[in-house]
Specification:
The protein has strands spanning 21-25, 30-33, 38-40, 45-46, 52-53. It is mostly beta strands. It has one domain (1-10, 19-57). It has a five-stranded antiparallel β-sheet, with no helix packed on it. 10% of the residues are buried.
Length: 62
């Protein structure tokens, strides 16, 4: 999906969330990245193959 240079990380790459946003829907809580990943505001992910990645925010210090 990514057509710019340098290419964004692939959907199966550990740094996949660094890809460019191509469609943002903050009112609905999600964004589509150019590698086909749907990024949710709670940091959960939906990968192009249908795999779900649970939210993974860093714990907040007390």
């Amino acid at each position: 999906m990514c057509s710019h240079t340098p290419a964004c990380p692939s959907a199966d790459s550990p740094d996949r969330e660094r890809s460019h946003v191509i469609a943002a829907h903050p009112d609905q809580g999600w964004s589509l990245l150019c590698n086909g990943v749907v990024l949710f505001e709670d940091t959960g992910l939906l990968l192009p193959d249908g795999t779900v990645v649970a939210p993974h925010r860093a714990p907040v210090a007390a």
